[in-house]
Amino acid sequence: MNSFLHIHPNDNVFVALDTLPAGTRVQGDGYDVTAVEEIPKGHKIAVKDIAEGENIIKYGFPIGHATTAIPAGSWIHTHNLKTNLSGMLEYTYEPNLSEYPEFPEGKEATFDGYVRKNGDVGIRNEIWIVNTVGCVNQSSEVLAREATKLYGDKVDGIYAFTHPFGCSQLGEDHKNTQQVLADLVHHPNAGGVLVLSLGCENNNLGEFTKVLGDVDPERVRFLVTQDVEDEIEAGLKILGELVEYASQCKRTPCPVSKLKVGLKCGGSDGFSGITGNPLVGAFSDLLGACGGTTVLTEVPEMFGAETILMNHCQDEETFQKTVNLINNFKDYYIRHNQVVYENPSPGNKKGGITTLEEKSLGCTQKGGRGVVRDVLTYGERLKTSGLNLLQGPGNDIVACTSLTSAGVHMILFTTGRGTPLGAPVPTVKVATNSALADHKANWIDYNAGQLLEGKTMDEVSKDFFRYILDVASGKKTRNEINGYREISIFKDGVVL
Question: Does domain 126-248 have CATH number 1.10.260.40?
Answer without folding.
Answer: no
